[in-house]
């Protein structure tokens, strides 16, 4: 029994590591889902469109595993202070990651319904928006996996450009709809695609905020330097 | 010190009760936000439109309070089994409630931008959808506050009707847009209103699932009897 404390600490560290591993895998999966969803739309790629919804069940399973392992650690190890804050952050971030996966799947399902617009629309605003959101998501996941508060703060500062591209895209789409009523159906799908991408960006920002709080114990200000639903700014005409 | 255990238990029960009280208040607030947001659209009521965004900061503050109290309880009391599962559920549900508040605010901000359609559109599908979603949300909050697994299961079963109304509304709106390009702007706002209402319904269902798990220790099946983003069904043309 003399070895018990050291043994306990080792097991505990392993469990924390394993919890971290689960959300790291979730992060990798939802990054993949987002990348494929964007490719599905802007390249009209059927194979890419099929992947995100297929990955959803795996993401859901990981979310449940994270929750069960977190409960197990809380029950058996009664962690304190920083560890406790990080376990709670992991629980909340796994929820954000699950939502990101859902939004990516929703984008993928609409991807091929915009085909009638092919050629007429350059997808350039959407392409740029997709790139930015993917970058932010990637940095948020890295910050999460590496417990990096500085990187988290970068993500938190980087989201305004996404909103500007969203507004550009919105105007472009309304113009297409006005020009020809046959564009209305496909353009509505693209509007929802853009909205879902914007929400993925919001959840990446949420993750960044949680990493920052878990690591530093300080909250970032509740007014975020960006738009989107979660930012509580009044909806512009471009929304 | 002989009284310490009884004293500790009492304090602990009070803290759990107080955590429950915070999410109950959150539930009441987001119900109010949702009701006012729907009224703002279907009755074109300006006063109602102002309220949901004004309540957002209060909801956010309560979410943070819930998280901090949960961490405190976990740190000081090291709760076991059912209590632990319920504290984790509260953490997750406070996230759902916060999202519901966001969606309600987003609806409220769009409410008066559909005014040009007034008279042309009966809002009857939206009115019915709003009523159903509010009922589901109310039952989900009740199930949460009263720890009622049976009621939670009712909510979980009740969401399909919302999707049917959404599809009806979607078709109606596309028809208006095709008839007159001047309807396109306001109709897009209404499409997002309907989508946001549907998402509020999804989060009410999430809450019901979490209550069920927290109380029974069993998960409801991952395939839910309903549509919407979170249900992972293929997007219909009506989406």
TrEMBL record, chains A, B:
GO terms for cellular component: cytoplasm. One of its GO terms (biological process) is intracellular phosphate ion homeostasis. Its main location: cytoplasm. Residues 23-110, 126-211 form the PhoU domain. It comes from the Bacteria. It is found in: Cytoplasm. The keyword Cell inner membrane does not apply. Keywords: Cytoplasm, Phosphate transport, Transport. PANTHER family: PHOSPHATE-SPECIFIC TRANSPORT SYSTEM ACCESSORY PROTEIN PHOU. Plays a role in the regulation of phosphate uptake. Belongs to the PhoU family. Homodimer. NCBIfam families: phoU_full. This is Phosphate-specific transport system accessory protein PhoU. It comes from Acetobacter garciniae.
């Amino acid at each position: 029994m003399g070895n018990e404390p050291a043994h306990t600490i080792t097991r505990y560290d392993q469990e924390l590591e394993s919890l971290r591993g689960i959300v790291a895998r979730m992060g990798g999966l939802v990054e993949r889902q987002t990348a494929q969803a964007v490719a599905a739309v802007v390249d009209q790629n059927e194979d890419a469109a099929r992947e995100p919804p297929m990955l959803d069940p795996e993401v859901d399973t990981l979310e449940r595993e994270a929750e069960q392992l977190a409960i197990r650690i809380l029950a058996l190890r009664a962690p304190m202070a920083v560890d406790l804050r990080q376990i709670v952050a992991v629980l909340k971030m796994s929820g954000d990651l699950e939502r990101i996966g859902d939004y990516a799947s929703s984008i993928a399902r609409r991807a091929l319904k915009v085909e009638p617009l092919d050629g007429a629309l350059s997808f350039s605003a959407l392409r740029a928006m997709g790139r930015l959101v993917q970058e932010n998501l990637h940095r948020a996941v890295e910050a999460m996996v590496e417990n990096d508060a500085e990187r988290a703060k970068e993500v938190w500062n980087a989201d305004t450009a996404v909103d500007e591209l969203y507004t550009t895209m919105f105007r472009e789409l309304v113009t297409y709809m006005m020009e020809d009523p046959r564009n209305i159906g496909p353009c509505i799908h693209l509007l929802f695609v853009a909205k879902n991408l914007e929400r993925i960006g919001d959840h990446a920002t949420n993750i960044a905020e949680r990493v920052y709080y878990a690591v530093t114990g300080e909250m970032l200000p509740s007014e975020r330097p960006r738009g989107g639903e979660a930012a509580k700014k009044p909806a512009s005409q471009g929304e």
